Amino acid sequence: MRSRIHGLVLACTLLHVPAIAQEQSSSLLLRLSEPLNQPQNPSVEKPSPPQSPAPPPAGQAQATLPMPSTPMRLTLQAAETLALKNNPQISVYRLLALASAQLIREEKAAYYPNLYGSLTAVGANQGSRIAAGALNSPHLYEKAAGGLTLSQLITDFGRTNNLVAAAALRAKAADKNSIATAEQIRLAVDQAFYNALQAFAERGVAEQTVAAYQAVSDQVTTLFQNKLRSELDVSFANANLAQAKLLLLDVQNNYQAALSRLSLVLGFPSQQNFELMETDTTLNPPPDSVNELVDEAYSNRPEIMAQDYEYRAARHFQKAERDLLLPSVEALGVVGKVPFAPTADGVQPFTSWYGAAGVNIDIPIFNGFLYPARSKQATLRTQATQEQLRDLKDRIADQVRTSWLNAITAFNRINVTQQFVDQSNLAFDLSQARYKIGLSSIVELSAAQLQQTQAQIQLAAAKYQYRIAQSVLRFETAAP
User: Fold this and answer.
1) What's the angle, vertex CA 149, arms to CA 145 and CA 151, rounded to 5?
2) What φ, ψ does residue 340 adopt, rounded to 5°?
3) Can you give the pLDDT at residue 448?
4) N or C: lower Cβ tally within 10 Å for the chain?
5) Spatial CB neighbours of 264, under 8 Å, sequence gap ≥ 6
6) Whole-angstrom Cα distance, residue 429 to residue 445?
């Protein structure tokens, strides 16, 4: 877009038109050059509706984007609320957080008894025995029975406790990741919202530029028809108008792209037409000290909290894997009923009811170094998680410092650009006065006018870029 503006400046240096045409084009977006520290009432001062561009030549079609007839009025706060409600990424991480909470119940299941039923029926060859296979009882009896088996963990010397603690910490980490995603969505909304406002302001400048140069072209054409200007002046005027229209096409495309991006962030499946309302027009300078911002980020950033929970969960899992080398004690019990009791060799081996209870102790002795390897792996992963936490803190501190410097630069850029606007307005007024009394040519007046337009565009961009820098700094420090 800046190349289009520089092209307009180059074209205007070759254009000679009356002072009346320059006076008509001198009112380009004067509202953008107003002081930025004065609060505005959004219900009173609204962006003026854009003027329609000049119609295309006869017989030439012009493609337009279909937009809803009634735009949706939207403030920044309403946009953030709508995005947090509709954006699918919010739902994804909330569901993942809920799924992680179920891991706690899975690990706690070891605290409770395991009860299951069994139904068994066997048809055996009378007097036969099992003689091959693993060690077992060789007796075979015809039988049919049903029963219940109960097992209850007595102790595994802390392994289950560590597994439950690790699952709880991972669930907290997933919840913090969900909060971090919400903050990222808020930042994306702020960026898309202010980019759309900037594109709208630039479109207004481009539309008024096209209207002004259309008037210039018409006047030069009229003067040429009356033999007061040459055909070369008409050619330069039309070339200048065509380049202004190219600038308008660029900013229109940028504006539609900004609306598309904003619609996506807000969770709409298709592009919407918005009337963006800027409710807060006061620009406050960034904080003076960056060290306090870094400390604030360390305390508030959900990513750091999530990584800290992951590290603590890894430590508990490391202890749980180490506890695999310890014994586990389990109580067992069975009870059942045999509906009939056949005899074997005239002896009745079964009674109708049966039951038994006992205690089982599993002592790991050797399993091919499986448990030591698992314990070592968990230890190394814990150390890696700790290093990831340290790296995350370093990167966040760097991001906070960079965002703070960018905010300071963007804020100072507003003041410098405001001076540029003031000086370009003064230069235009002086050039216009000199032209009226015949002390300068149209070249000087045209250059001053284009410089004024460029300054107004840069001022609009500087204001909204500082808004974005503020949003980024707020995100980096997790400020409310």
Assistant:
1) 170
2) -145, 160
3) 76
4) C
5) none
6) 9
